[in-house]
Amino acid sequence: QVNSKQGGSPCKEKHVVLLSPVGKLEISGCEMGVHEIKLPKMSELPSGAESSVACEVCEGAEEMPEPLRQCTAWLRAYFSEPESTGTLPLPAFHHPLLQRDSFTRQVLWTLLKDVKFGEAVSYKQLADLAGNSRAARAVGGAMRSNPIPIIIPCHRVILSSGDTGSYGGGHLLKEWLLSHEKLQKEKLAR
């Protein structure tokens, strides 16, 4: 249950499961916005054939509130025609973390706005972008608490050394997302 910002009544939370090339993404939210996206834990990378899996809602398609409809449309586009994500509306977010004014929220919004598809930044670079160059550790904390992964692209934040670093969905998923974006970007450049 997620309570509204004013401490009023709890949201009528709905759940949707999206079958994606990386496994089942569990999305929850209400009429006000998306609460969270739960990533599957990957034990192996999908092969080329599996990565062409159609992205379909396999549970919860009926009575989907608008933010969840926008979220699934955005994620579908991300996996199948990522160049179109820039033209799609972002779903509203209704997670308490994204409603409070905090450094974490600022970092997540900065990441969403400034780090484009196919790009990567270090924790330190993201701290700079968010206005506090000495807060690389806090940026790591913000990435760990990101309730809307993939849309808020915490997988694009890597170590200064170039190593991918840790990720809520696991190391393999992070590598898959980064290489997916790199390949798609190269395709578009041709």
From TrEMBL:
Signal peptide: none annotated. Gene3D superfamilies: Methylated DNA-protein cysteine methyltransferase domain (3.30.160.70), Winged helix-like DNA-binding domain superfamily/Winged helix DNA-binding domain (1.10.10.10). GO terms for molecular function: DNA binding; metal ion binding; methylated-DNA-[protein]-cysteine S-methyltransferase activity. It is an enzyme of class 2 (transferase). It is found in: Nucleus. SUPFAM superfamilies: Methylated DNA-protein cysteine methyltransferase domain, Methylated DNA-protein cysteine methyltransferase, C-terminal domain. Its cofactor is Zn(2+). Pfam families: DNA_binding_1 (PF01035), Methyltransf_1N (PF02870). One of its GO terms (cellular component) is nucleoplasm. Coiled coil: none annotated. Its EC number is 2.1.1.63. It catalyses: a 4-O-methyl-thymidine in DNA + L-cysteinyl-[protein] = a thymidine in DNA + S-methyl-L-cysteinyl-[protein]; a 6-O-methyl-2'-deoxyguanosine in DNA + L-cysteinyl-[protein] = S-methyl-L-cysteinyl-[protein] + a 2'-deoxyguanosine in DNA. CDD domains: ATase (cd06445). Residues 19-91 form the Methylguanine DNA methyltransferase ribonuclease-like domain. One of its GO terms (biological process) is methylation. Keywords: DNA damage, DNA repair, DNA-binding, Metal-binding, Methyltransferase, Nucleus, Phosphoprotein, Transferase, Zinc. It comes from the Eukaryota. Residues 105-182 form the Methylated-DNA-[protein]-cysteine S-methyltransferase DNA binding domain. The keyword Lipid biosynthesis does not apply. Belongs to the MGMT family. Involved in the cellular defense against the biological effects of O6-methylguanine (O6-MeG) and O4-methylthymine (O4-MeT) in DNA. Repairs the methylated nucleobase in DNA by stoichiometrically transferring the methyl group to a cysteine residue in the enzyme. This is a suicide reaction: the enzyme is irreversibly inactivated. This is Methylated-DNA--protein-cysteine methyltransferase. It comes from Poecile atricapillus.
